[in-house]
């Protein structure tokens, strides 16, 4: 009994010695260093994609890998007969036999398009490395139990983001392009589109879908700060789903409601996943209390 207080004070001193408080400027330097490493890794990967040859073309000819991937993307997005997701929509709209021609308005439009596709690929391939760099930055300020939680949610966020990227690339964008081709033919326009704008739409649509898939983590964070509860989510899910579909009807160009279903169905699934996560978190909080 007599020695417990001094021992506790020694333990506090030991912890404080192990985790000294760093000046704010040092944290800023560490943050900038983390950003510098991420930027270097990202740029190095882009350069590698631009100059790395497609292995199946060797040794007959040198063909950059990213341009080979561009040709595969062109075929997947615009050959509606073979695409399992956009094919049914293209047949419904009567554009399944349409031939889209991608044109270059400038000398380096194809190179710009290759860089845009490289950004999408880098976002998927390097996301674990980027997450690790961010974790390294915040890890010194975390306790052991906090580290386990952060690691678990980092893996969960990565899984959602990559799933969103894949869904955006393989499902959403082919359907969007089939609708765009249909609208172009309704106006009597020839199907000549800018290759730079084509890949800009792919990059923006794919990355936006990846970020959108992390919606459950946003809801969980709002629960942590006391903004939402499971009862709130359960009681208002009909209104939220209706509002989302109403918003999609206004912003998407497809008047047939098909693309709205493709975009809205994942949101409904993510919303119910958010409800399950919040309910699970509330159960844990009750057990602790």
TrEMBL record:
GO terms classed as biological process: intracellular protein transmembrane transport; protein transport by the Tat complex
Annotated compartments: Cell membrane; Membrane
Sequence intervals crossing the membrane: 38-58, 111-132, 153-182, 202-223, 235-251, 257-278
Primary localization: membrane
Highest taxon of source: Archaea
Gene Ontology cellular-component annotations: TAT protein transport complex
One Gene Ontology MF term: proton motive force dependent protein transmembrane transporter activity
Keywords of the record: Cell membrane, Membrane, Protein transport, Translocation, Transmembrane, Transmembrane helix, Transport
Cited Pfam families: TatC
Function text: Part of the twin-arginine translocation (Tat) system that transports large folded proteins containing a characteristic twin-arginine motif in their signal peptide across membranes.
Annotated family: Belongs to the TatC family.
PANTHER family (alphabetical): SEC-INDEPENDENT PROTEIN TRANSLOCASE PROTEIN TATC, SEC-INDEPENDENT PROTEIN TRANSLOCASE PROTEIN TATC, CHLOROPLASTIC-RELATED
Subunit note: Forms a complex with TatA.
Protein's recorded name: Sec-independent protein translocase protein TatC
Originating species: Thermofilum pendens (strain DSM 2475 / Hrk 5)
């Amino acid at each position: 009994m007599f020695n417990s207080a001094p021992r506790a004070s020694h333990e506090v001193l030991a912890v404080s010695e192990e985790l000294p408080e760093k000046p704010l400027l040092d944290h800023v330097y560490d943050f900038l260093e983390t950003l510098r490493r991420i930027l270097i890794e990202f740029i190095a990967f882009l350069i590698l994609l631009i100059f790395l040859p497609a292995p199946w073309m060797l040794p007959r000819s040198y063909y950059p890998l990213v341009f080979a991937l561009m040709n595969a993307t062109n075929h997947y997005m615009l050959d509606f007969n073979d695409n399992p997701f956009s094919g049914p929509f293209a047949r419904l709209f009567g554009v399944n036999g349409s031939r889209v021609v991608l044109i270059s308005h400038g000398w380096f439009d194809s190179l710009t398009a290759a860089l845009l596709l490289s950004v999408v690929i880098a976002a998927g391939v390097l996301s674990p490395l980027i997450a690790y760099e961010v974790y390294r930055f915040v890890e010194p300020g975390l306790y052991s139990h906090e580290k386990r939680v952060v690691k678990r949610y980092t893996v969960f966020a990565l899984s959602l983001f990559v799933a969103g990227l894949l869904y955006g690339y393989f499902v959403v964008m082919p359907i969007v392009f089939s609708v765009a081709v249909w609208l172009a033919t309704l106006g009597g326009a020839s199907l000549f589109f800018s290759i730079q704008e084509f890949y800009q739409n792919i990059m923006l649509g794919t990355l936006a879908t990846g970020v959108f898939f992390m919606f459950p983590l946003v809801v969980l964070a709002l629960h942590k700060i006391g903004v939402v509860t499971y009862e709130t989510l359960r009681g208002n899910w009909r209104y939220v789903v209706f509002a989302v579909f109403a918003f999609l009807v206004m912003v998407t160009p497809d008047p047939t409601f098909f693309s709205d279903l493709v975009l809205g169905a994942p949101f409904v699934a993510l919303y119910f996943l958010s409800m399950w996560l919040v309910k699970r978190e509330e159960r844990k909080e009750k057990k602790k209390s």
